[in-house]
């Protein structure tokens, strides 16, 4: 009888604990995902700020590139901001391997979207960052959706993948020859958060050397290009950042033609300490590489502890921009989108449930936010120390 009572008690206790855990999860999710509304105090002061200089002339004056990722749906916003606010642009999707193919599968190229974006940027004398020749994620976009199947079905998978990669890199660089002079050759070679390689079709088939092959093929196809290895970091003083640095250091030692490193700088889960970023840029420069901040954005909810989150976000953009501008090796800074209306985060869980995102320089109505003025302030401050011509990128 006692045993029965004990078991019954345990069952009741377990049910209670279970209920508490479920309740805690629901409250936690509600807290994390409940839409917030922050005061847009900047709207009151915008008129006063509008008189300040715009970003592109400030950047050009010091030989720096300030850029934005542009989606094919944002041509109007790009037309309005080219050479006023941005002297560089990155097609955020159009030039990816899968997106360049009819149906996202190996076979026929369709360069029309890429040409539309690239030709528009060139008509505005805006520099273009090509993004990206190889990416192990997003089959159908980052690479052909049937790449893995075709490679694994081949008698010699390594030779097959090498052939497909080489043909792709040569075809794309030939098509855009003379119009794009800086390319992300490989995007995100690392595991999302572990100090490991990303276990994608390229790494799994060819090992780490797929990176060297890609860069050597791109350099041989067009030696005038500035070739970049592009990666996202949650922080710069951790094992994963150290592993990436060691990988790059080894490629440089072996003479792989890597010219620059792209630090994507998506600010997604927390506002990072910035001192490690400065140190990391200097370490990369010590390898003879240039650096670009290639995909900066920062969710406004990460600044919710501030009485004015949009102003705190602006201070963060100023600080990141200043770190880049204080380092001669850092030749450009690109934000990943023009207006908050078109941020990639609104397409991807869990971020799309964490409204407002508002991670960029222009708000939903294309009004300049404190983040815009933070970048402007950093560019003005750099005038005393940086000189150069934005039309001649560093290697
Ligand atoms: O164009 C189609 C549309 O026709 C279809 O109805 C819709 C619904 O599926 O999808 C649309 O394509 C989407 C595409 O963006 C264009 O908006 C894809 O699904 C979506 O996966 C794709 O997301 C892009 C993502 O990379 C994957 O390629 C984002 O726009 C882009 O901002 C994002 O950018 C990446 C960088 O390349 C690398 N670093 C991280 C960064 C953010 O994820």
List the defining traits of the structure above.
alpha/beta; 2 domains; binds ligand G3I; eight-stranded parallel barrel; 13 helices; disordered C terminus; TIM Barrel; single chain
Architecture overview:
It is built from 13 helices and 9 strands. The protein is of the alpha/beta class and 395 residues long. It has 2 domains: 1-34; 45-394, TIM Barrel. The protein has an 8-stranded parallel barrel, surrounded by 6 helices. Helix 4 (75-81) links the parallel strand 1 and strand 2. Helix 12 packs parallel to helix 13. The longest helix has 32 residues, at 2-33. The chain is globular. Residues 391-395 have low confidence and may be disordered. Residues 92-93, 138, 141, 187, 232, 264, 295, 344, 347 line the site of ligand G3I.
Number of domains: 2
Q: How many angstroms does the end-to-end distance come to?
A: 82 Å
Mind telling me the CATH superfamily name of the largest domain?
Glycosidases
Q: Rough shape?
A: globular
CATH architecture of the largest domain: Alpha-Beta Barrel
Q: In what order do the strands lie side by side in the largest sheet? A: 1-2-3-4-5-6-8-9
Strand content: 5-15%
- The portion of residues assigned to helices is 40-55%
Radius of gyration from the alpha-carbon trace, in angstroms? 23 Å
Q: Which ligands, by name, code or SMILES, are bound?
A: ligand G3I
Please outline the major beta sheet.
8 strands, parallel, barrel
Number of helices: 13
What are the secondary-structure elements, in order, as H or E? HHHEHEHEHHEHHEHEEHEHEH
Contiguous low-pLDDT stretches (5 residues minimum) are: 391-395
What is the tally of beta strands? 9
Structural class: alpha/beta
Multimerization status: single chain
- Could you say what the CATH topology of the largest domain is called? TIM Barrel
